[in-house]
TrEMBL record:
Compartment(s) where it occurs, according to its Swiss-Prot or TrEMBL record: Membrane
Protein name: SPFH domain/Band 7 family protein
CDD domains, sorted: SPFH_like_u2
Bilayer topology: Single-pass membrane protein
Organism: Hephaestia caeni
GO cellular component terms, A-Z: membrane
UniProt main location, coarse: membrane
Database matches in Pfam families: Band_7
Spans traversing the lipid bilayer: 20-40, 52-71
Residue ranges of every copy of the Band domain listed in the record: 66-230
Keywords associated with the record: Membrane, Transmembrane, Transmembrane helix
Amino acid sequence: MTQTVSQLLDRSAERRASSSNGYAMLLLAVAALAAGIYGATRMQAAPETGGAIIAVAVVVFAFVVIGFYMLQPNQAVAITLFGSYKGTDRAAGLRWVLPWMMRKKLSVRANNVISDKIKVNDLRGNPIEMAAQVVWRVTDTAQALFDVDDYKAFVNVQIEAAVRTIGSRYPYDDFEHQEVTLRGNHEQIGGELRGELIARLEVAGITVDECGFTHLAYAPEIANAMLRRQQAQAVVAARQTLVEGAVGMVEMALAQLSEKDVVELDDERRASMVSNLMVVLCGDRDAQPVVNTGTLYQ
């Protein structure tokens, strides 16, 4: 059985990081700064004491300041210690961790991507052009950072692969309206594209909120031929409807003429009348009648 990428990888999992409120540590930094100023004022009276106070204040101030970081709403930071993942902080505002812990910011906001137009062969082998619009976001920061090399590039590649897969699964159009098609079933195809993308991006801790096709057309090399085919199909369908209507009108006319005894027609004259009515009803141009001033049989 073929294994998926997610099955082959040892998955990471996001967990909450141990971090501190940055505003409390900011008070400590201000206190260290004040101590340093106080030590500077003591330098003349007691140089050794003042120097010691300044040294301690500088060390404490630097230790505190290096650990600060700030998060906006819908931002997260992954914290590592010597290459080991220690958790993710999603709390907005001023935050603080120990200075030797490394921090990597990433956005968990919704991202909108419109893919490039790509050429795909549909189910019947016809070349078509397709492009998709996808709204995605990171749900697991650990997977996004540590299970794929570049999660944004990974998303773009998987969008193209999913569009090719869906495009080759269905025909572009079905003139008999008996099959699911790319052009005629937008909602269903869009739902399948979303499901395909969610399955492909699961390994990167990414989900898809919305997707759909922004461009769907025959490739230029067959577009004219397919347009003529569509036009021919439309003409045939229109003619079929016209003939069905004309036959019904002729049947109704003959039935009412016979029912009301307006005129009696033999088989030959009935056939001639049917022919004339069909020509009038199905013709592309207005009929030019010939007035018979004699008898019916002249």
